[in-house]
Structure formats: structure tokens, C-alpha cells
């Protein structure tokens, strides 16, 4: 069966090969679909942190800090006084902070999707410590029956 005779210009095409040409060869990296332990992983960016233990530790600190910041942004009461506040400006500031919180939350989620056990643990630890500091009653200065702001903290 010769399909090249029915269409002009098709007879001179080379048949497909089983391997790509040399210019199209890409380095293949195994993507984990289950949790694994080890420092050889990629977190958020291609090639980062690489195989260096120091860079892996920096990546863990980075994920921890982002998770901690998400909890701070979720529970901190911005714009406490609403008597002198421009409500339109306050709405834009709250929207900007919400956008920042959601963006950071997605970064933590993408980091956890590396399926690295260490990244998962520091993400949970960052969220937990952030909640302890900002969301729980441990460090609250006022009693429960004290007057609260009319603006609630950002909820998840």
C-alpha cells in the first residue's frame, strides 16, 4: 500500500523514526506520584533546589516561611479602625491582601505537589505555627468578651 502517490509532495517524505532527532532530545526527569524522602527533588522551579543539601534546606525554609505568611495574612486584622477609613481604599487594600494570600497559598500547594516528604512536613509545620501564633487564643491579648473589630479576619 503506497499512500504517497495520491497526494503530491508526499512521496518524498521520510517515514517517522522511532527516536527523535538529536536536537529534540530532552532530559527526562522522573516525576513522583507518591511521597518520597530525599533532597534530590524540584520545588516550584525547574532545577531548584538541585542536589545540594544547602539549597534543599533553603527550599524547606522558603516553603515554611510562605506557609507561615499565609496564616498571618489569614488571621491578622487589617484596618482595625473603620471610623476614619476610606471604605473604597480599604476595600482595595483588603482585595490586594486577599490576592497575595491566595497566591502564596497556591505556591505552598505547588511545593507540596513535589511529593517530597520534607516539603510536606515543613508546609504543615509553617501553617501550624502560623495558626498557633495568629489564629489560636494562645497569644491573644484581650479576653473573649472584649470589644472586637467590625471587620473580621480573612477566612479561608
TrEMBL record:
InterPro entries assigned: Cop_transporter (IPR007274)
Keywords: Copper, Copper transport, Ion transport, Membrane, Transmembrane, Transmembrane helix, Transport
GO molecular function: copper ion transmembrane transporter activity
UniProt main location, coarse: membrane
Membrane topology term: Multi-pass membrane protein
Protein localization: Membrane
Protein name in the entry: Copper transport protein
Organism: Cephalotus follicularis
